[in-house]
Protein 1
Amino acid sequence: MLTCKNVAEEATDYLERKMSLWERIRFRLHLFVCGNCTLFVHRIGLTSQFSGKAAHQVASSEEILAVMSRIHAAEKTQSPTPDSDPKE
Amino acid sequence: MTEKMTPEWLADLQRQDQVAFEKLVRTYHRQLTAVARGIVGDAHAEDVVQEAWISIHRNLPKFEGRSALSTWMYAIVSNAGRSRLRKDSKMRTVDSDNGDINLYLETHLNDHEHWSRVLPHWDIQSPDALLQESQLLKCIKKTTELLSEQQRAVFTLRDIEQISLNEISNILDISDSNVRVLLHRARLKLMQVIDHYQETGTC
């Protein structure tokens, strides 16, 4: 039988659907009988949704300028960076 | 939140339009840097991201759209980071930050591993309603900057950029289970910030 500690540790595994069928059934059975754990799992999910939107940051003008300057300098010297060239 | 890529924006990027590219840098630079930190640590992240932007700029005309542009860019950062790591294997960071989750469990659970008290009530229940709380937004931004480098990288890729766990595992070159552990630690820290805000109105 799962304890609340197990649920508190495994909530993200559950929300990300990274449990086997049996693990998922066991987890849901615990949530069925434990209001606090149900609330905890719901809040981890809410935190994920909210924080993902809240935490996005935009670069400053200085940061953008630094990137563009570096790109222009690289274009002038045409220095290759083969290790980071992407392969789709 | 992350500005969504549109076909028009992508077309401008592939024509190497400078305004479109500066918008891309503005939108993604901080997030790419957070991920680079998770791979090579703070000291070398800026260099890695600058190299990545050069590669992104050069290769945008060849981007075929088989993955999302963001995923492609993060893969470039990953390649640049791993290239740097090959030069210095001591650079690899390891997340040893398990303190907060243990402390949370100790203070909220009893000896029988069940909740010792009812969780406090949250007045604000939806993500959109939470987004209206400007003070809370500041708290969350500040807390994400205090996450460990690897936690912040995983949180950025999953909860900000909505990239799959498998892709994150590839980008950061860590196991799927490690990704989930790091993600859970980050989410738990942020949940505690929201908990505290709901109770006190402050960070």
Note: Chain A has a mean pLDDT of 89.
Protein 2
Amino acid sequence: MSEKISIEDTPKRSVPRFSRHDWIRLFIVLWFIACWFIGGARGQVDLDPFFALAYPDAKEVSKVSDGVFEAVASDGGILGYVGVESASGYGGPLTLAVAVDPEGRASSLSVIGHRETPVFFKRALRGGILEDLVEKGFQDSITLGEDVDGVSGATFTSLGLTQSVHRAVRNVAAGQLKLEVPPKERRIVFGVPEMVLIGLFAVGIAQRRIRVKKKLRSQLRWATLLTGLVALGFLYNRPFVLAHINMVLIGYWPEWQTHLFWYILILGLLFFKAKDEWNLYCYDFCPFGAAQDCLGLIGGAKSHKVRWSNELVWAKRWLIAAAISLALIYRNPGLSSYEIFGTMFRLEGSNFQFALLALIVLSSMFYSRPWCRYLCPLHRHGAEGLFSWCRKQVLNGWQKLRPSPAQ
Amino acid sequence: MAETSSKSGAIVPTLWAVLFAACIGLAAAHLVQAVQGQAEQESGLIESTFTQADARE
């Protein structure tokens, strides 16, 4: 005869208890949520200084529709309009105020908000792109690289500025001036950087799915590392940075047509990390990781014993938490990017970043991947570790809710 | 002899720790500088980036 099993005898699924570190992680997650709300409560940009510069003779500048203002002279005549539009830059939305004359041409403009890393934003301005965009009309196609010179090393910033002006001029021309605006061209940017990135992901996945000999696996890994170093590092300077994490947290999702690379990188990383706990980027094609590995070959780098290692890792975690918090509060994903990738691959950065780069380059020759372990925001001791912890809590919660199978 | 080797064995890990602490300090200093720059940038952004057609001539 079969024995009856009561509910009390049914084995309960054990859920790990919260440790001290778990409470700290939970506090950090809640703190990020609070910073997000603080950032959202910050005031709107005051446009009066732009109105005074663009239309000094205007008696009044008043809002006529969403993002459009009308400048009226003292005799009642319309001097022009101001369109406020945004487009995706590198770190988030770039917002411009564009004064549009009655013929539908941009007569003046100003950047009223941006989320770009300061170095690259200044580079874009030094390239003279704003001067190129002034006097563009609603019928002009205003394509970066064709009608407007892009700025090397600040491509996304240049693209964002170009698109903002284009939208503002077209919006005013169609809405207020009632002019016939040509249809907008939607180009999808898919080129060599995107193909290289997909190829790197494909090789990384294949290495994990297909059984290969250890020697071949090592060779493949070096091939992807060197490809990452050359392509994602020196050629295109598109490593994964803290700004990408900040953009996801803030909610700045750029246009996929012009930022396909961003989507492939972010979604690829998140998908395989969530599904299989794989970090395809750090160990397979991170350009800075590859640079450290190459330097390590020179001095025979290995993982030496470090005093107060645990304390240093926790110092790194608090640094990352501060960086993400500031990005959320100021709504600027690139603000807190302290990484030295641009310093290495483009020789641009603050004095602190150059000093940091020198120390990391020297130590990489003798210590294996020091940046990854003690400074990288993405590493398993940083954002990746927090993501894994969140994933674990979700899975544990799901296990708790799911009924136990009967024996 | 054992004491000398144990002292030198303790020095190297300490030196590594000091080096990495200095690196974290430099990253933190860059962060502070960036935040200060953000506040300055927000205050004069419109005026500093204002561009009009006459300026090109």
Note: The longest strand of chain A covers residues 78-88.
